[in-house]
Design brief:
With about 475 residues, the protein is of the alpha/beta class. The chain folds into 2 domains: about 10-230 and about 435-445, Aldehyde Dehydrogenase, Chain A, domain 1; about 235-425, Aldehyde Dehydrogenase, Chain A, domain 2, CATH 3.40.309. The protein is built from 15 helices and 19 strands. The protein has helices at about 25-35, 45-60, 60-70, 75-100, 140-150, 165-170, 190-195, 210-220, 245-255, 275-290, 310-315, 370-375, 390-400, 435-440, 470-475; strands at about 10, 105, 115-125, 125-130, 155-160, 185, 205, 225-230, 235-240, 270, 320-325, 330, 335, 340, 360-365, 385, 405-410, 430, 445-450. It has a 7-stranded mixed beta sheet with strand order 1-6-5-4-7-8-18, with helices on both faces. The protein has a 7-stranded mixed beta sheet with strand order 11-14-15-10-9-16-17, sandwiched between helices. Strands 2-3-19 form a 3-stranded antiparallel beta sheet.
């Protein structure tokens, strides 16, 4: 499909020199004109776009399964669970509550504004840019898109060029379902993304690494463009001595090795005592064998590393500490076995970078206090997990640390809840999304106060001069309401 055949697609300028100096200018102008026309504002239009997005998922289910298998070795079950069902759930949730989200929100008033109408109106920002990653190429591309469409924006979608098969489907098929006057897919790599970021957008939503997040934020600052940054980090997982090791192993192994460990909210390392480590290791081996069989390489449920570059990086990390479980790799398949490392030191590379693969290092601590010290010395993580039979231990871990999200005795499934925001804090990002949080992220909350053109006498009290009696009255009528007055 060329730019002429489908307005919703801008070709990769690396392979098309005919696009000239700026391949994005015409597309961005077209989208801005569509937004200025008011096309995206009615609830009916937004709902139609969301329904069309749902149809894209339903009509192309098999094609999407194939693309995800080619990119990441995902099984159909894993693709459904982590990509399609969750995205469809976000669409259905937005359709269910769209009109209520769009309603003006009445607010409490003080005595000075009792005869006025005070409310918050949720308005679309305008032209928004969504830059998506490769590890969940549908979910992390389309779930933000749900929020942007629900909020009434025009959208430029930049899928990752690393997940090539998924990018191809999103570029060639998705634009057929959405109104191409207000939606476009842009292709290309870092160079093209950099050129795209030179343009002014009204909002930028980025999911990726902190390193690239800084680049995006720097580019956005030149235009004072607001951003949401969904970044990553090293997610700690504290395992208390008071726990059932097999239960912990089952849950940790499930969301550490899901998608071959290429998950931003997966536990990145375990903190536990040497005694708990001894009990946890056979339990982890048991969980891995139960999930993936005696030969995990032949399991249909274990994915593969996205590309050669990431495979080589991960294979290098296998030299840290001592391999207690797994450690096998096969370059021809980009396969790395579910692995557990022990005797890991804080200064080793595996503890200095986000792993983003099926490798789980274990560091020993004497207890909760030392674990919290280790966690708090590092940058704030996207996710933090604590496992214990004692609710007090879990509550202490929650109260004495900071993270984007927290899981006590469970993980992973919080990302399936549209009632909770997903987002980081500090080094792991800013802003959140999912459900109404997505709608709010892509909406400007505009404060509105509408007053009668007459009744001027009522305003006289606020005009100078200000004798003492008038100051007392003003102080009274401008005080915040003591109860909700709408």
């Amino acid at each position: 499909m060329s730019c002429e055949e489908g307005k919703g697609l801008v070709k990769d300028s690396r392979s098309d020199p005919t696009l000239g100096m700026d391949p994005f200018e015409d597309t961005l102008r077209r989208l801005r004109e569509a937004f200025s026309s008011g096309l995206t504002r009615p609830a009916e239009f937004r709902a139609a776009q969301l329904k069309a997005l749902g149809s894209f998922l339903q009509d192309n289910r098999e094609l999407l399964h194939q693309a995800l298998a080619q990119d990441l070795g995902k099984s159909v079950a894993e693709s459904e669970m982590s990509e399609i069902i969750t995205t469809k759930g976000e669409i259905d949730w937005a359709l269910r509550y769209l009109r209520s989200w769009m309603k003006d929100e009445k607010v409490s008033k003080n005595l000075a504004t009792q005869l006025d109408s005070a409310f918050i109106r949720k308005e679309p920002f305008g032209l928004v840019l969504i830059i998506a990653p490769w590890n969940y190429p549908l979910n992390l591309t389309l779930v933000p898109l749900v929020g942007a469409l629900a909020a009434g924006n025009c959208v430029v979608l930049k899928p990752s060029e690393i997940s090539q098969s998924s990018e191809k489907v999103l570029a060639e098929v998705l634009p057929r379902y959405l109104d191409q006057s207000c939606f476009a897919v842009v292709l290309g790599g870092p160079e093209e993304t950099g050129r795209l970021l030179e343009h002014k957008f009204d909002y930028i939503f980025f999911t990726g690494s902190p390193r690239v997040g800084k680049i995006v934020m720097t580019a956005a600052s030149k235009h004072l463009t607001p951003v949401t940054l969904e970044l990553g980090g090293k997610n700690p997982c504290y395992v208390d001595d008071d726990c059932d090791p097999q239960t912990v192993a089952n849950r940790v192994a499930f969301f550490r090795y899901f998608n071959a460990g290429q998950t931003c909210v997966a536990p990145d390392y375990v903190l536990c005592s040497p005694e708990t480590q001894e009990r946890l290791l056979p339990a982890l081996q048991n969980a891995i064998t139960r999930f993936y069989g005696e030969d995990p390489r032949s399991s249909p449920d274990l994915g593969r590393i996205i590309n050669e570059k990431h495979f080589q990086r991960l294979r290098g990390l296998l030299g840290c500490g001592r391999v207690a479980i797994g450690g096998q790799s096969d370059e021809s398949e980009r396969y790395i076995a579910p692995t557990v490392l022990v005797d890991v030191q804080d200064a080793e590379p595996v503890m200095q970078e986000e792993i983003f693969g099926p490798i789980l290092p274990i560091m020993n601590v004497r207890g909760l206090d030392e674990a919290i010290d280790v966690i708090n010395r590092r940058e704030k993580p996207l996710a933090l997990y604590a496992f214990s039979n004692s609710s007090q231990v879990v509550k202490q871990a929650l109260a004495r640390t900071s993270s984007g999200i927290f899981g006590g005795n469970k993980g992973f499934f919080h990302v399936t809840l549209p009632t909770m925001p997903l987002g980081g804090v500090g080094h792991s990002g800013m802003g959140g999304y999912h459900g109404k949080f997505s709608f709010d992220t892509f909406s400007h909350h505009r404060s509105c106060l509408l007053s009668c053109a007459g009744l001027e006498k009522l305003n006289d009290i606020t005009y100078p001069p200000y004798p003492n009696w008038k100051q007392k009255v003003i102080n009274y009528i401008l005080s915040p309401p003591s109860c909700t007055i709408l």
